[in-house]
Amino acid sequence: MKSNLVALMIASGALAMSGAALAGDAAAGEKKAEMCMDCHEPAEDFADLSADEIAGKINTIVAGQFKHQKKLTLSDADVADIAAYFAAADGK
What we know:
The chain has 92 residues and is mostly helical. The protein contains five helices and no strands. The protein has one domain (2-89).
């Protein structure tokens, strides 16, 4: 579990620093994030995280680098939109 957390942090940091994250559309992300709402409360689970940090976390799940309850198959645009939605829910 600890190694998964370290890998997640490294991947998140690399993505954020690389500028590889797309600028997402929070309005589009709201619909796409419905599948996440069974388990996540955006303002609580993603509090104080930027859209880039959230996208990094989602990308580690999509890549299979982090164990998650649901198998996620998302495009880069989907990830960016969902991350923008979650970040906006926290006012970021």
